[in-house]
Amino acid sequence: MTQIAVKTMDGGTANVTLETVRSGLKGPVCLPGEPAYDDARTLWNAMIDKRPALIVRAAVPNDVVLAVKLAAQHGLLLAVRGGGHNIAGNAVCEGGLMLDLSLMRAVKVNASARTAVVEAGAKLADLDTATQAHGLATPVGINSTTGVGGLTLGGGFGWISRKHGLTIDNLISADVVTASGELVKASAEENADLFWAIRGGGGNFGVVTSFTLKLHPVGPEVTAGLIVYPFAQAKEVLAAYRRAVAGAPDELCCWVVIRKAPPLPFLATEVHGTEVVILALCYTGDPASASKALAPFKAIGKPIADVIGPSPFAGWQTAFDPLLAFGERNYWKSHDFMELSDGLLDVLVGAVKRLPTPHCEIFIASLGGAINRVPADATAYPHRSVEFVMNVHTRWSDPSEDDRCIAWARGLYDTAAPFATGGVYVNFMPADEAARVRTGAYGPNYERLAKLKAKYDPKNLFRLNQNVAPGATVPARG
Q1: DSSP class of residue 76?
Q2: Which of 177, 266, 423, 468 has its CA 20 to 30 A from that of 220?
């Protein structure tokens, strides 16, 4: 029998046999040196380079059950991969057991009921392709290679969230494998406390094998595109942007990107590589009303390019993929804001003058709308009064630039902190921000999460995440 030494949660090792691991599995098991091993362990963020002792590539929900039971029985260090896109890189572990869900990518749409059942390894592109065939969509992120699972468990927001809420606000139910190896359904009617926890609580409470999501009529064509301004107009554009977005209808979402101009075909070559301010807009309302909704934004400044027009929604969902390409080194820092004050705008403009590489950028997402009409304690995600999220995307290729790039991101984060709420979207937190989990990510909802963690995962088997430690026990609910 083939013995495999696997790292345990307490830092030791446990020996398991390959035959035991494979017993009953429908999906493959990968070991170091085998052809599929490196593909399975390689994540979107090239800064993460870890080698698990073995990888179980689940093909069906029972594979997840068996892998979780194996990890629980032997106390194995367990990492769970969905899309492998999370900035912190917790989807892989050094020397432990990696449970890879990426083979489970089916999306089943019920167009008449306006629902979709989405397997845990599906990516946003899988979901968008399936739903847009029926002119339907649900709020997800803006990068089509992101995994649906991780995005949903952290909250999930994108172009249509001002109209339709967070991804978790559209979650009807989920199938969850708990730390005991039991496959249960979490919904408003069944295991309601678990359902509350997984809507924003990350991977702390189990491994979700499928999500049932509510869909809405969207597209297949929307009005979307970019308005690009020279950096000399940055302060003027940003000040006008905050006024325009304050009066925007829920059907209109406008985000800001500040960076060096990529070589987009509609930009003159002399603009390429220069600092620019970009307004990215998506309007999903009545096309006849698009001009009126967009007018305040089109009146801003003197753009060097305006390429807003009819666009397939599924295509717009991929528009930022080249800026978030697989295989680069990445480090993020993020803040929540109630407003974009003059002082904050000065901070942003100053930071852009010191961009460490051409691929670094500042994203400002406009939230509000339907997101903020949900009570803060209705789901584990608590940030229901936030109007803007800043995500500092620091990206580079050469490891020798690590210190310089990370220092730039941290410096901008520190300088912007006096203008921020102190809160943070959990999916934007890098691996070194464990201290922000309690007050920053979850705030008033943390104590309830800790109690539910004690109920569903008292030994903290699911610890490779932005971790909520088990707290005082809580009686079963629902």
Answers
A1: B
A2: 266
